Amino acid sequence: MKEELPDYAKYFAVGLRVEVRFPRSQNTTFHDWADITVFDEDLLVLQLSRDVLPDGIRTDTGTILDIRVGKDGYAYYCRGIIVAEEGPAKLSVRLISDVIPDELREFYRIDVHIPLTYSIPVGKTAEQIRQEWHDRRYPAPPPEDEQTGEVPAEPPPPPPPLPPVAANISGSGIRIKMREKLSADALVPLHLHLPLDQPREIEVVGRVVDVRGLHTREGTPPLFSTGLHFLHIDERDRDAIVQFVAVAQLERLRELRQGNVSITSLAYPSYAEQIRRRRILAAFTLFVILATLVAGLIYWQFTAKKGEIERTYEREIRKYRDNLPVR
Length: 327
Hints:
This is Pilus protein PilZ. By secondary structure, the chain is of the alpha+beta class.
C-alpha cells in the first residue's frame, strides 16, 4: 500500500515567508528568511532574503535543512532536502518529514533501530565518568617491547554483536526505552554502532534530560522513555551521527516512492511537468496573439475604406496604364 504524503498545504502556500535553518558545524544552525515562490505537493521553491550566504553554509544538492513556519500563533517545523539550485539565492527543496510543533531542536531527529549498549555508573563522580569516556574514546597507544621496540601483535578479541534497540536519535541526543528510572542530570555512558558504509563505533556520555513512564502489561517490569543529551562526544562522531540521520531519511524517501531514489532524482516529476505545460501554454498564447494580429492586418488591408488621396493615386495609376502603347 502506497504511503500518502502529509498535507503540507495546511502549512505552506505561495507567497508565505518561512524561516530556513541551515546546519553548520559546532552544533549550531544558521537562520535566514525566504519567500515561497512555488509550492507543489511536497516541493518548495524558496527565494532567500540574502543573495550571498556566510562562508561554511552549504546549499548544494543533498543538504538537509529545517523549515520553520508560523500558523495561528504557533510555530511548526519540517525537514527538507535541497534538490536543485534554481538561481541566485533560490533553492528547490523537497519536504521529507511530517510538520510538527517546533521544539527548537538543534539537529534533525529520526526513529531507527541501531545496536547500542549503556551502563549505569554507581558511586562515580562526573569527572570520573568523563575520564573513563576519554580513555575509551582516545585510548593510549600500546606499550612498545623494550628489547625490540616493536608493539606486541595481540589484537583484542572482537566484541560480541550489539542488540538493535529502538531509538530516536539526532546529533544532539538520543531517546531510548530503559528499565531503570533515572533522575534528571544523571550521566549514562553509551556505546553506539552506526551501520554506515563504513560502520562506526561511537562512545558517548549522555545526560538525562527527560524521563516518561510508559504503559506496560500487568506483571511486566516498568519501562521508561528516557531522553539523553550528548554531554561528552567527539565532534567527528557527532558528524557521523548527522550523516547517519541523513542516510536514513533518504531510505525513508525510497520507501515512500517505492523504488530507487537518488538525490539528483528528487526534483518532483509533477513540478517539471507543470513547468513544461506552462511553457507550451505560453508559446501557444503568443502564437495565437501573433496570428490574430496578422489576420487583422490582412482583413483591414482588403476591407478598410480608402481615403481620397489613395483613391486619386489608384485612379491616376489606371490612367497611366491605359495610355501605355500596346506592344
